[in-house]
Amino acid sequence: MKDLILTIVQPLVDRPEDVRIEMEEGSNGITYKLSVHPEDMGKVIGKQGRVAKSIRTVVYAAAGSSQQKKIFLEIVE
Q1: Which domain of life does the protein's organism represent (predicted)?
Q2: Alpha carbons 48 and 1: distance in angstroms, whole number
């Protein structure tokens, strides 16, 4: 799943080397925490959060029913 997120996010930003993804597994699911360079934050979130919502939609669809746990994607500063 990390590879999918990287594949989507890195072309969007000016500093792809600063893209970091951390995975936290909890009792209610797996949370992927995405962090990018502060100047690229707006590009990842998009106007009114449309880009972020689209990224989440693709990630959740890819996880689908193949995962036993629910997948979450957080964009952190």
Answers
A1: Bacteria
A2: 25
State the pTM of this model.
0.87
pLDDT digits (tens, 9 = 90+) for 45-57: 999 999 999 999 9
Dig out the tokens for 38 from the structure: 């502060």
- The full set of domain ranges for the chain reads 2-76
Residues 6 or more apart in contact with residue 13 via CB below 8 angstroms: 19, 36, 37, 40, 43, 44
Q: Which amino acid is at 9?
A: V
> Hey, CA dihedral for 58, 63, 64, 70, is it positive or negative?
negative
